């Protein structure tokens, strides 16, 4: 890992997830018993996935690449992650505001999906930085 990659990791991942890390620290210090499903069920990680995907997509468009096919594929996958993450975050918020409607989204599925979107967004963003 060179210096650019460390700076990217710190500025795009560590700093962006700081509110989440602070929440984990406060839960630990406060001695609160909580499951990972309840911790992630509000969709906070979808916001992170959306922002890191959008940032990487914009970087892909302004860079000249020697491998335009890979750049296009990574950009399309990041765009899909952006749309899905944004849609899922909006759906969760909408469902939370609808008090009289039963929540159709299983919390475990929702929480797991938020983790998958986050990991894919980080991985593809790193690959786009590394190769272009």
Count of separate DSSP helical elements: 6
> What would you call the shape?
flat
* Cα distance spanning the termini: 15 Å
Oligomeric state of shown chains: single chain
Write down the secondary-structure element order.
HHHHHH
Low-confidence stretches: none
Largest sheet: none
> How many individual domains?
1
- The count of β-strands is 0
Integer average pLDDT = 85
Structural class, judged by helices and strands? Answer: mainly alpha
Strand residue content = under 5%
Which radius of gyration do the C-alpha atoms yield?
A: 17 Å
Amount of helix:
over 70%
Task: Give a description of the structure.
This protein has 132 residues and is mainly α. It has one domain (36-131). The protein is 79% helix and 0% strand. It has helices at residues 3-14, 18-30, 36-40, 44-62, 68-97, 107-131. Helix 4 (44-62) runs antiparallel to helix 5 (68-97) and helix 5 packs antiparallel against helix 6 (107-131). The longest helix is centred in the middle third of the chain and has 30 residues, at 68-97. The mean pLDDT is 85.
